[in-house]
Amino acid sequence: MDIKKLESLLNDIKNGSTSIKDALDIIKHLPYEDMDFAKIDHHRGLRNGIPEVIFAQNKKTDNVIAIANSMLKKSGRFLITKASEEICRALNLKKARFYPESRIISYGETRNKVGHILIVSAGTSDIPVAEEAEVTASFLGSKTERLYDVGIAGIHRLLSHRKLIQKARVIIVVAGMEGALPSVVGGLTDKPVIAVPTSVGYGTSLGGLTALFAMLNSCVPGIAVVNIDNGFGAGCLAHKINIIGLKPNKKG
């Protein structure tokens, strides 16, 4: 449950369209629902603005589906990361959408987007992580735009999009190899930059550690860095920054 759902429920009680008994039945699993194998945090969206998201990796398909169905019943939406098309088919929901590049399944995405988040990738190999960030931020209700394959080996590709960079409220920059692109973007704008290191690169990239260390040691002040390949975390942080000062979304 999120703020909009709770406000709607309270208004229904006030105008008499929902009884107190029915309302109690709706909220009886707050703050969480114990399903034995999982304790679903239905209250998380109320506490910090980001609902609990299902991490499918290493989970049984049946368990993922059970958690998703519970979330769907309580809030009408869910997001599943590190998912597969097999899980999407097993959900058997016509409106569930599987994004193959980001390996995300979404249902009940916020329709009315606000603000502007720009997602930048250094290379084509970084796109899956960039897509995870984009799909996450869009699901949560942020307007997003992509700018892919503009790494520093061909810096002119990035520089030709300066107007787009300045237009964004928040910028997510995804890069592997030496991880230099966030510093370049950070030096071109006063907007918040969230750097995402990827595990893309040859041997001494060390599975993304080289890019991570480069981003953490950037000489451009004010760049935030998330974990290796953590497009989801970048999308959540960017969304939180993006909606600061904007009117709340009323229609979901």
* Total beta strand runs: 11
Task: Determine Rg (CA atoms, Å).
Answer: 20 Å
* CATH topology tier name of the largest domain: Rossmann fold
Give the amount of beta strand, in percent: 15-25%
Strands side by side in the biggest sheet: 8-7-9-10-11
The largest pleated sheet is described as: 5 strands, parallel
Q: Give me the CATH architecture of the largest domain, please.
A: 3-Layer(aba) Sandwich
- SSE string, helices as H and strands as E: HHEEHEHEHEEEHEHHEHEHEH
Query: Helix coverage percent of residues?
Result: 25-40%
Mean pLDDT: 88
Query: Which residues sit in consecutive blocks of at least 5 with pLDDT less than 50?
Result: none
Structural class: alpha/beta
In whole angstroms, the N-to-C terminal distance is: 12 Å
* Number of structurally distinct domains: 2
Report the CATH C-level class of the largest domain: Alpha Beta
